[in-house]
Amino acid sequence: MTEHEGERLQKVLARAGLGSRRLCEEFIEAGRVRVDGEVAVLGRRVDVETARIEFDGVPVTTRTDLVHYVLNKPRGVVTTASDPQGRRTVIDLVPREPRVFPVGRLDLDSEGLIVLTNDGELAQALTHPSRGVEKEYLAEVRGVPTRAALRTLREGVELEDGRTAPARVMLAAEHEGNAALTVVIHEGRNRQVRRMCDAIGHPVLRLVRTRIGPLRDPDLAPGAWRRLAPEEVRGLHGATAQRPGPRGPRG
Q: Is 92 known to be catalytic?
């Protein structure tokens, strides 16, 4: 690429939501921006369709054809692109174009946040087991778990597919003999929170995913969706760059 091709890097960064062009120039001058693995210099031009741009080691989404939605999935909606039984899917709740796909899964009876995108790189990073992106759930369970039962959830539960990794679990509320738990996990096993609670004798009555990495939206109504802001996309990329470390009991 010659010096006259592509867009100025500070303009691309500003459009991606990192700040004003002047602030983005300061980021470049401070050596915080890399293009295709090299520290960028002021005046650099880039092809937004092919260049890999990173700010403080976190990828910056610059392609104009990529979209990122967050949906508050209602109960009874299937997390697939299509369903042979004719049930409503998460794809039915977001715009048809451009075509997107769900990142990860929520089972039929579960509710809460799910990301839909055509950004394959981000989707793969969010779902790869080695990235350990946290997911937080509010689980209403039958009965009130004892301290010992909560400790078991935190330290790891023996399931048919192996012992679960340590989790963060807190008793959030009690009502009419049942309880609400806040559960934070970084694995992605099928129906994991439900199976964990079954294993301690407190089956889940309702399960809502309230957070994916840094992404929350308590005001998003069931069945509603919105497009993620650039800083939210960067936050998800940043979460995939972290690695889960040792977690002690909390709550």
A: no
